[in-house]
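Supplementary Data S3. Sequence and structure tokens for construct A.
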Amino acid sequence: MKRSPLRVALPWLLLVVVGVAAAALRFGLIESSAIGQLCSSHHGPWWCSVRTTLVLGFLHNIYGVTALVGAALALLSRRRVLAWLAAALGVFALLLYGAETGALALLIGSLRLLRLQAGPRGAPTEQHRHGQQQVQAQP
């Protein structure tokens, strides 16, 4: 049974969406000096607490650790959603100042997702395996 190209490409397109959203958070909300000055006053808008939470998240490396936990779950499981989640958390951590851990989680999640998308026929260990390994007598 052949899968549609959209179904195969959808997880990768969603990873791009996660990357764009993380970049928008980083450059629009965290690094903006105007927003930083606005939030430093005592009467800042409600979303200044969201900004503070995001900053505390990367200061304490929460995004990187979460991405590595997701990568470990992706390696232990055969579920595509966990592989995608590891890659998405890796992209998020990578863009929010957790370059080393985010890159590792992105790599592990992407490779695991590729492997699971390939199915059992694409696995190198399964390609040349025969059902009943019998030794034949020499001719």
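Construct B, processed identically:
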Amino acid sequence: MGWFGFFQRKETSTAKENVTPVSENHLVVIQFFYGIEDISELHHLEDELRLLLIEQGVGSYHGHEISMDFGDGYLFIIGENADKIYECVKPLLQSYYFMDKSIATLRTGSFEQENAQEKDFILRYSKLAEN
């Protein structure tokens, strides 16, 4: 075996392909329209999300993306069970008016998994939904 043989990857019979740890397998993405130039309300929601997810132990908040014109935005949450994450954060999200008509996508697999299942839900602002 030459020098390059030392760096070759060894295959074992116990190796599994495309296996992601369960704790990283589920993803919840919230797509929303913000429309406010001051993003302090979004930061306030993020702070509440972080605390809620830590308290409930269902996942972790991984930040947001928002367009340059403060229009379309996305929130990212990762955990072990997308359904539990969604049920946990849904009431909080519904308490923010800019989350009205947001779309929550629950994905039971990582981005690399082509066969991961996805479900979409529409969030409604709770004060509008009561009427």
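Residues 40-56 form the longest helix (17 residues). Residues 19-121 form a domain with the Alpha-Beta Plaits fold (CATH 3.30.70.260).
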